[in-house]
Write a structure and sequence with these properties.
By secondary structure, this protein is α+β, with helices and mostly antiparallel strands. It has one domain: Peptide Deformylase, CATH 3.90.45. The protein has 3 helices and 7 strands, in the order αβββββββαα. The strands form 2 sheets. A 5-stranded antiparallel β-sheet has the order 1-2-3-6-7. A two-stranded antiparallel ribbon has the order 4-5. A hairpin with a 5-residue loop joins strand 6 and strand 7 (about 120-125). The longest helix is centred in the last third of the chain and has 19 residues, at about 150-170. The protein is globular, with a radius of gyration of 16 Å. The structure holds zinc ion. Zinc ion binds near residues 94, 95, 96, 136 and 140.
Length: about 170
Amino acid sequence: MPQKKIVIEPDPILRKKSKPVEKVDDELRRLLDDMLETMYAAPGIGLAAVQVGILKRLIVIDISKDEDKKEPLFLINPKIISKSQQTSTYEEGCLSLPGHFAEIERPAECEINFIDYNGKKKEIKADGLLSTCIQHEVDHLDGVLFIDYLSKLKKDMIIKKLVKHKKELNKIVL
Ligand code: ZN
């Protein structure tokens, strides 16, 4: 299973809206497997397809901390159908914004429907870390990043640092 390259902000693709998936077949499952491997290797607990440059409504999540007992969750065309009034705050990071973290307040619980790895329609209710993770990843499918919830000043500062970081990555030494 080949790993994929993770897109780093700023990149215009991260601001695009991903398209719904029409068919769950082996090719799509291969892509989900590759996304999962890319996420584990990073390491991260969630990854949306747009983060590997593919504008499809696909998410992989695994919030289990146990190396031996992985619990991957594959979400195809996820839709948030309800959110709680009550909120919770987590310090969020993102594989597309390496090295940057911020406390983000989101609805504490959410309910989603989605299509699973086998093409079956499912519904789950999530709370805690899973709820935040799902909302963060669904945001990616709509071109939203966690820094969009910060003040313009904080957001601009992070983007400036990322631009510098990307320039460093592109430098070559001969
Ligand atoms: Zn992210």
